[in-house]
Amino acid sequence: MNITIVGVGLIGGSIGIRLKEAQFGNKIIGVEKNEANAKKALHLGLVDEIQSLDDAITSSRIIILTVPVDAIMHLLPSILDKVTNQVVIDMGSTKSNILRLIADHPNRGRYIAAHPMAGTEYSGPEAAISNLYKDKVMVYVEAFKTDEDAFELADSLTEQLEMKTTFMTAEEHDMHTAYVSHISHLTSFALALTVLEKEKSQGRIFELAGSGFESTVRLAKSSPDMWTPIFKQNRGNVLEVLEEHIKQLQNLYTKLDKEDYEGLHKLIKKSNKIKRIIR
């Protein structure tokens, strides 16, 4: 059984490393339009060989899409046109538009929408790590529309990644990821822009940047090629979350502006309840 990974960067490359370690599949094939990244993926041992997409579809049992979501929108229909008994797994960060796009495709049953809730702020083949997915959550979206044998094969791959699993509708997935992932990145981008703007006039500002700043702003190092399409595809949910976030920032601003330190204390104390959710 050969496995193809379309897009051999952080997400795809980390899958390749882990599957090779677990000896899951006969051969890991990479499809990568960036020639430099293709050479790096081979050199780093993320994949066994690089093939064209058409050749890879023909020679593989599982095809995993780990390219940006706009590229998934472009590639997925034509890939499904060409499959017979293969399993196509989309690991994009948004789902509603993708699922609507292929809802009536005759090979819909050979496709599964999955989203591994894992990643780092780094990108490219050199960012790939073997334990990226260990103990993280794989979200299956509308899995009931996938053929049983196709789902079982996809789930066996998830087991090799040592992940937990959960099931959601497309609407649930896109809304929840907007709150726990997408807004985190937008906030980090905004903070980075704020500090960079101040740095123009106060050039020594980064001398004081400690671990708190680094942990808050690290996501701003994330790839714009990946995140711009995510915000585009999940625009409605992201705008809703962003509106609430701006409202909360305004609340904090108002308390401080009016020197309402008791009110500010209450808001901060209220925010501490997040300890119920994260450690």
From TrEMBL:
Domain Prephenate/arogenate dehydrogenase: 1-279
Keyword Oxidoreductase: yes
Listed InterPro entries: 6-PGluconate_DH-like_C_sf, NAD(P)-bd_dom_sf, PDH_C, PDH_N, Preph/Arog_dehydrog, Prephen_DH
Assigned keywords, A-Z: Oxidoreductase
UniProt keyword Oxidoreductase, yes or no: yes
One annotated GO molecular function: prephenate dehydrogenase (NAD+) activity
Documented EC number(s): 1.3.1.12
Pfam families xrefs: PDH_C (PF20463), PDH_N (PF02153)
Source superkingdom: Bacteria
Protein name: Prephenate dehydrogenase
Species for this entry: Sphingobacterium arenae
Taxonomic lineage: Bacteria, Pseudomonadati, Bacteroidota, Sphingobacteriia, Sphingobacteriales
